[in-house]
Amino acid sequence: MKTIQTMLAAGAVAAGLAACAAPQRDMPAQQASAMSPQSVTDSQLQRFANAARKVNAISPDTGAAAATPAGEPTNATFNEANGRKAQAIWSEGLTVREFNAINAAVQQDPALMQRYGALMQGGGTMMR
Question: How many independent structural domains does the chain possess?
Fold first, then answer.
């Protein structure tokens, strides 16, 4: 279960960073905050899991040439990674706010977290 929580935390952080660096193509804030664990559909959860996999695979220094003399990524590198994270979320048909709202719903509901965990571990679609 710790692995699932780690993936959720990484996804939430990455999405939050992506929201800062990317253009706002999101739904109104009241819609995102209104997402309850019961309102997350199987389709949304599947897209969230797919996006989380993509977001978690993007690191700030992946494919970036810009680095400090100490080899640390620069702000430009982080901005580039954040843009790629937002694109990964959008490629699954979600906005960054929807992604974050689903992440919050998963963290609130143990049953939803189990469904999400099954998707992340199995890598496939849910059987219901």
Answer: 1
Considering the domain boundaries, does residue 127 fall inside one? no
In tens, the pLDDT along 77-100 reads 778 888 999 999 999 999 999 999
Q: Is the pTM of this model over 0.70?
A: no
Residue 59's domain comprises: 2-63+71-122
- For 105-114, the CB contacts below 8 A with 24+ separation are 105/35, 105/36, 105/37, 105/39, 105/40, 106/8, 106/37, 106/40, 106/45, 106/48, 107/8, 108/37, 109/37, 109/38, 111/37, 112/37, 112/40, 112/45, 113/1, 113/4, 113/8
Residue 128 domain flag: no
CA 42 to chain centre: 16
